[in-house]
Each structure stands twice: as C-alpha cells, then as structure tokens.
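Before surveying the methods themselves, it helps to consider a single example record, giving the amino acid sequence and backbone structure tokens:
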Amino acid sequence: MQQLMFIVISAVTLISAALVVTTRSLFRSALWLILTFFGIAGLFILLHAEFLAIAQILIYVGAISTLIIFAIMLSRGVMDPNARRFNDQWGLVAGFAAVFFVLLTAIMTRVPWQTTMAPAPMAAEAIQLLGRELVTPYAIPFEVASVLLVVAMIGAIIVARERES
C-alpha cells in the first residue's frame, strides 16, 4: 500500500512540476506549483518526516505560494494576453535540460543504491531539541526574514498603486 501511495504521489508531483514550467498562464503555473509543494509534503509524510511535511505546507504552500500569487497579480504585464510567451532562447534551454536529464539518469542508474535500511534510532527528545534550537539561537534570523518579507510585500503594493494613479 505504501509503495502504491508513493507511486501515485510521485506521479502527481512530477506531472504538476512539469505543468509548472509548460503552462502558458503564469497564474495557473503558480497554482500547479502549489500542487507540487503538496506532493513534496506527501513524500515527506511517506518518509515519516512529519515535521518537514508540516513545515513544507506552512512555509511553501502557505507563505511562498501566497507571495508568488500576489506578485503575479500585482504585475500588469503578466496578465496581458498579447504578451509574448517565449523568448528566443527556449531551444537552447530545452537542449540543456535534455542533456542534464540524460546525465542525471545515467548517474542514477550507475550508483549502487542501498535498498534495505534499518531505521535509525531517534532520540526521545528530538522534536524538543529541534524546537529549542529554532527558538533560541535562530529566533532573530527568523524574525528578520519575516519582517523583510512583510516590507517587500508592502513595497510591492505601494509600487503597484503608484502605477495605477
């Protein structure tokens, strides 16, 4: 059952990731990105990394995706249906992506992956230690980053409102 769930979640994640880069509408691409983030959170759950799954949902789905959608909606040129969708370098980029894909596939097929693994013993206080580390030495960087994001969003709104006038 777990393997079937992995295959389904992986397929949904890969398809939505492919749609992120191939969809013509930037807004729809952002929506596919949200589904990709949810798929990654599902993979974290299958790996028994519940904390990372919740962090993925809160940070990427909740905050980053919202910020991206606001940025898309605040920019006027993106919503123009007559705007050019591709630049002149798309063929070069597609070629590099194909070469990179072949290279990664060759590397992944030649590495002797360990298929059975005994679960690592987890300390009883692992979550408490992680929480303590996030709150004590890294509290100031987290607060600075949150203030920076709020200031950037307010600045984007002010710039967008100035153009309307």
